Amino acid sequence: MLTSFDTRVQNIKCSGCVNTIEKNIGAMPGVQHVSVSQATGMVSITGVGLNPTVLKEKLAALGYPPEEKNNLFKKMKTRIQCAFKQ
């Protein structure tokens, strides 16, 4: 069954980063298509039998770790805590 996996990753700075992700993730078993947006950091992967944990680990090993889903919340919480400490 064809499935998809989407995640936002860190550290995409140039077209070379995009090519690295597309080439390495595209070569993984079961992966049929990889799309990477340099502007947004979004990586979309389509294939058969995709394992999100394995894909995240591979992205991190390439130097593009997925962002945490609640990353914005954590940033805001930190800023609020800093404001109250001053």
Structural account:
The chain is α+β, with helices and mostly antiparallel strands. 44% of the residues lie in helices and 23% in strands. The chain contains 3 helices and 3 strands, in the order E-H-E-E-H-H. Strands 1-3-2 form a 3-stranded antiparallel beta sheet, covered by helices on one side. Strand 2 and strand 3 (42-48) form a beta hairpin. The chain starts with a strand and ends with a helix.
| Integer-rounded radius of gyration | 15 Å
Question: What distance lies between the first and last C-alpha atoms, to the nearest angstrom?
Answer: 54 Å
Could you tell me the mean pLDDT?
88
Order of helices and strands: EHEEHH
Proportion of β residues? 15-25%
Strand order of the largest sheet: 1-3-2
Instruction: Detail the poorly predicted runs.
Output: none
Largest sheet: 3 strands, antiparallel
Please state the overall shape, judged from the principal axes of the Cα atoms.
globular
The assigned structural class equals: alpha+beta
Q: Oligomeric status of the shown chains? A: single chain
Report the strand count: 3
Features:
86 residues; alpha+beta; 3-stranded antiparallel sheet; 3 strands; 44% helix; globular
